[in-house]
């Protein structure tokens, strides 16, 4: 069993095993904000999905921005290109603007932005019943 030491900056910490051996650990405090190549790829896939959803509703980026009360429609472009992400506290507004069920929207966004948690919740053997 490991005793995780107090987390430091950006989730870095140390682990001490049963033999007293110290092992450095780096943990991310916000896995959905990862900056690696895989995270970028998933944000881009999320952006493509969101763009398709917007276009299916016949909305321009400007109109979607108006519906979700954004000051700048360019944020829609940033999200659709993978340079930005939908903030979790805005999921309901995006779902409503795109005429989607909010639970389905959140699950889809989680599959892109936090695939580890999504997998644990919806793809594990115990989650499948």
UniProtKB/TrEMBL annotation:
Residues 1-21 are annotated as: Disordered. GO terms for molecular function: DNA binding. It holds the Pfam family HTH_3. Residues 50-105 form the HTH cro/C1-type domain. CDD domains: HTH_XRE. SUPFAM superfamilies: lambda repressor-like DNA-binding domains. This is Ribosome-binding protein aMBF1 (Putative translation factor). It comes from Roseospira visakhapatnamensis.
């Amino acid at each position: 069993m490991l005793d995780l030491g107090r987390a430091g900056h950006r989730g870095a910490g140390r682990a001490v095993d049963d033999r007293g051996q110290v092992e450095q650990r780096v943990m991310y405090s916000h896995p959905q904000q990862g900056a690696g190549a895989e995270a970028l790829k998933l944000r881009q896939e999320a952006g493509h999905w969101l763009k398709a959803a917007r276009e299916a509703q016949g909305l321009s980026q400007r109109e979607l921005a108006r519906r979700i009360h954004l000051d700048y429609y360019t944020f829609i472009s940033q999200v659709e290109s993978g340079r930005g992400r939908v903030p979790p506290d805005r999921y309901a507004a995006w779902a409503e603007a795109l005429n989607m069920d909010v639970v389905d929207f959140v699950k889809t966004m989680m599959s892109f932005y936090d695939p580890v948690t999504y997998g644990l919740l919806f793809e594990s053997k115990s989650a499948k019943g």
